[in-house]
Amino acid sequence: MKTMEIRVPDIGDFKEVEVIELMVKEGDEIRKDQSLLLVESDKASMEIPSPQAGKVRKMLVKLGDKVSEGSALLLLDAEEAAKEIVPEDRSRQSDNRSRENTAPSAAENPTFVECDTLVLGAGPGGYTAAFRAADLGQKVVLVERYPVLGGVCLNVGCIPSKALLHAAKVISDVQEMAHHGIRYGKPEIDPVQLNRWKQGVVDKLTGGLSALARARKITVLHGIGQFAGTHEMDVTGKNGQWRVQFKNAIIAAGSSAAKLPGFPYGHAALVDSTGALQLDSIPEKMLVIGGGIIGLEMACVYDALGAKVTVAEFSDGLIPSADRDVVLPLLDRIKKRYEAVLVRTRVTKLEEDGKRLIATFDGNNAPSEPLAFDLVLVAVGRRPNGASIGADRVGVFVDEHGFIPVNRRQQTNVPHIYAIGDICGEPMLAHKASYEGKVAAEVIAGLKTEYDAMTVPSVAYTDPEIAWMGLTEEQAVKQGIPYEKSVFPWSASGRALTMGRPDGLTKLLWDKKTGRLLGAAIAGTGAGELLSETTLALEMGCALEDIALTVHPHPSLSETVMFAAEIGLGTIADLYIPGKK
Ligand SMILES: Cc1cc2nc3c(=O)[nH]c(=O)nc-3n(C[C@H](O)[C@H](O)[C@H](O)COP(=O)(O)OP(=O)(O)OC[C@H]3O[C@@H](n4cnc5c(N)ncnc54)[C@H](O)[C@@H]3O)c2cc1C
């Protein structure tokens, strides 16, 4: 054993970064690669790993100290060099724009690794599968091309977008209180600080994942994974190459933003959702191409921050997969707030004009002249990454879109190779990915599990929120399913009125014969939270009576679900519906 000084490794251009968390203390026994402390600059936060296993003799830094490459951090009584796999750069740099730039290099002299289960991709599907498999006794290798775990959802999807949407809601709530006698000044928005807060939320969650993986003794390899055989994967990282031999593999490699051809990608004003989340500055005029969930959520953020927003959607309506009735309250509100909401409108051309882009439109509602924008977001859906992982080379069927079809046990056509999450089909949602991750891990571990969720709920966290689950009315009609429906308008909800937001509705669909719930759709503040009651009701096979006869707290938005059921049964007291008993 020898005492050595552990210093800050090469952390790129970062200098004088602040120590914001000490992750070990004097006397701790630590493993090689265990994170010692967390440092933060205005651009990123990073965990500094230990290059050696051993016992911490003395800490040489404290919280708030500023450190740079080479600064001494602690004295370690080091053990013999452990024979561990050294993953590539463990620092958690979180500049998301650089996330898309990792390129593989050819594998030479790889390190061989064996495992029971290999998981490719550490998004919500992959990390859930890896954690569950490890908990069920499997030796797990988790392969992720970026230095942080969490995938799209945690790094550039669900979490950062919801942080910004929360900020947007606070701004618009405050603005609306002006009509009720409380006035504040115009908000002063500091995009740098807002970004820092958003990134802090992301870093907390992704850092937590690394700790959870370590606690489960999962080997995390940072590099690009490509199938090399039916039981082999090559992983090429910045600092290492591995050949992993596995008994079973779970593909959780997710999806990427779809692009429209012919646009000037590379121009600073043209972004996808990752670029829009970066929020470098607030544009005066913004064009959102695509009226789906992601486009409308980002429109909501930029509108609240003060941009003049135009939305162009090429199909007949916004959020095409949602029940039409619940989209209307959103449409009503954004039509008043935004510069324009153009459905049945296609952007045919985007031309550079200095820092701006000039958009040409086509379609029923197209502006007659091209228009100039300071920021253009392309949010036209996501493409599964199935074609880029070498799966087809080992006999896994990948369809023409890049999806990898699976059965109810999440198995591909190659039975010991599973696929989960965005890569195996719609809806591309984080909670579907994690549900499927558990199914795959449990099937591999020999449990009698299969995909049997009755629905995957969907939520657009816009203002108002739009949430739906089960059957939509359009689907019921199309499939010829006999149904009945009821709609409770939030203008009759005491709670909605006290919140100044009566612009919502709760709609239920049920089986004409049995009265069992078939679907629900809700528009309004907090609709995403309210939807869970109806999702549980569907899973439990509840009929309208079960919902109507459950006592709900008053005044609450959850009452609107009960009221909608009471309308269906004709027992509602809070509305007068002529002809009902
Ligand atoms: C802006 C935005 C907002 C969103 N908001 C929501 C929301 O509110 N709620 C919701 O449910 N969903 C939301 N989503 C969708 C959600 O993020 C995805 O459905 C979810 O992340 C899918 O999880 P996944 O595990 O299948 O894949 P991903 O999260 O895409 O993870 C796949 C991982 O695999 C890695 N990978 C890919 N190929 C390789 C390779 N060859 N080698 C190594 N690693 C590889 C990737 O780097 C990535 O980390 C949002 C998406 C976006 C873009």
UniProtKB/TrEMBL annotation:
Binding residues for FAD: K162, G225, D422, M428, L429, A430, H431
BP term (GO), one: 2-oxoglutarate metabolic process
SUPFAM superfamilies noted in UniProt: FAD/NAD(P)-binding domain, FAD/NAD-linked reductases, dimerisation (C-terminal) domain, Single hybrid motif
Enzyme Commission code(s) on record: 1.8.1.4
InterPro entries recorded: 2-oxoA_DH_lipoyl-BS (IPR003016), Biotin_lipoyl (IPR000089), Class-I_Pyr_Nuc-Dis_Oxidored (IPR050151), FAD/NAD-bd_sf (IPR036188), FAD/NAD-binding_dom (IPR023753), FAD/NAD-linked_Rdtase_dimer_sf (IPR016156), Lipoamide_DH (IPR006258), Pyr_nuc-diS_OxRdtase (IPR001100)
Keyword NAD: yes
Details of cofactor binding: Binds 1 FAD per subunit.
Segments of this protein annotated with the region Disordered: 85-108
Presence of keyword NAD: yes
One GO molecular-function entry: dihydrolipoyl dehydrogenase (NADH) activity
Keywords: Disulfide bond, FAD, Flavoprotein, Lipoyl, NAD, Nucleotide-binding, Oxidoreductase, Redox-active center
PROSITE patterns: BIOTINYL_LIPOYL (PS50968), LIPOYL (PS00189), PYRIDINE_REDOX_1 (PS00076)
Cofactor: FAD; (R)-lipoate
Catalyzed reactions: N(6)-[(R)-dihydrolipoyl]-L-lysyl-[protein] + NAD(+) = N(6)-[(R)-lipoyl]-L-lysyl-[protein] + NADH + H(+)
Active site feature: H554 (proton acceptor)
Disulfide bonds: C153-C158
Domain Lipoyl-binding residues, every copy: 3-77
Superkingdom per UniProt: Bacteria
Compositional bias annotation for Basic and acidic residues: 85-100
Chain residues that bind NAD(+): G290, G291, G292, I293, I294, G295, L296, E297, E313, G381
Additional comment: The active site is a redox-active disulfide bond.
Similarity-based family: Belongs to the class-I pyridine nucleotide-disulfide oxidoreductase family.
Identification of the protein by name: Dihydrolipoyl dehydrogenase
